[in-house]
Amino acid sequence: MSLGITILIAVLISFLILFTVLGNSFVLFAFLIDKRLRNQSDFVLLNLAICDFFIGAFTSPLYLLYMLTGKWMLGRFLCKLWLTADYTICAASVFNIVLISYDRFLAVTKAVLYRSLQNKQSHTVLSMCVVWIMSFLLYGPAILFWKNDFIDNDIAADICVVGFHDTWYFHLGTSCVDFVLPLISISFFNISIYHNIKRRSRKKRQTSASEQFREKEKAGRLSIIATNSVLFSLQPHGVNMTSLRHYFCNKHISFPTNNGRVGQVNVQITKLSRDKRLFKSLLILVCVFVICWAPFSFLASINSACTGYCVDSYWYEITFWMLYMNSAINPILYPLCHKKFRNAFSLVFKNNWIHKHN
């Protein structure tokens, strides 16, 4: 690779890393200053933002240095620390996407249960901790205790890879746990949400059509009764019945509706609209996640199956940085998909502006 290409790649990836750190720092700062971001779904997004921040602040800069120089120059301890952090944080990102999907699944399909959990912050904190514990247990012990001929050998001190890098059955097992099973879970939650919203939308249309028909039928009956009553009362006074009947038949007469029932229908419509927005925001987040993660997971599995010699390192590096790029995209999706985050970001900008001009 020429020096010019190397410098260009270094500059572009450095901008990506900087954007990842600043974007996720902004998200974390918004959580700190906006007290409205305190319910269960917000904390789950906070957990994902923490993962993305550490990817930008710690793991990706070290990998950029390793990639550009072609050798590890930071010692064995930092090598194992970096590998453990990288694998743990990336796995936590995947599990957080599953947790977000599950949270939206409960909000849409199990509304009563979801409301009861909103006031139980201990439940939310426990879920966040479980994500990190599972992520560490998946890779941490293997990285720390698996026999590693590269790290433990003074001759290969400039190489930093996991001991199981060419162990296909370990990669296959972990790929199932940290990508295939999460993808199946995410698909199940999203499909369930979609069918729930579709069923409620169809029911709403049927209910609206039925209500409209009943109201028109009721209005027609009342109109006939009212017209006949007026005509009957005016008949003794010699009024032209034909003209008067023609007037009443062409006159629109409105009648009060059942306000209680209308209010209930309006609440259902509002909740349905909110759930549709939740589903759209979740779908965008999940689609970006799959696009960024699927290529790397696929190539990593192939690479381990053929002991690391059947996939060109060029493609491997591209998919690896696609994985990291997901952490830079997520902070953009939060305000685009969630009104609360737009308000929180506006509050952050306002506070910064006031602070600068005081």
UniProtKB/TrEMBL annotation:
The chain crosses the membrane at residues 6-32, 44-69, 81-102, 123-146, 179-197, 282-302, 314-337. SMART domains: 7TM_GPCR_Srsx (SM01381). One of its GO terms (cellular component) is plasma membrane. It is found in: Cell membrane. GO terms for molecular function: G protein-coupled acetylcholine receptor activity; G protein-coupled serotonin receptor activity. Keywords: Cell membrane, G-protein coupled receptor, Membrane, Receptor, Transducer, Transmembrane, Transmembrane helix. One of its GO terms (biological process) is G protein-coupled receptor signaling pathway, coupled to cyclic nucleotide second messenger. Residues 23-334 form the G-protein coupled receptors family 1 profile domain. It holds the Pfam family 7tm_1. It is a multi-pass membrane protein. Belongs to the G-protein coupled receptor 1 family. This is G-protein coupled receptors family 1 profile domain-containing protein.
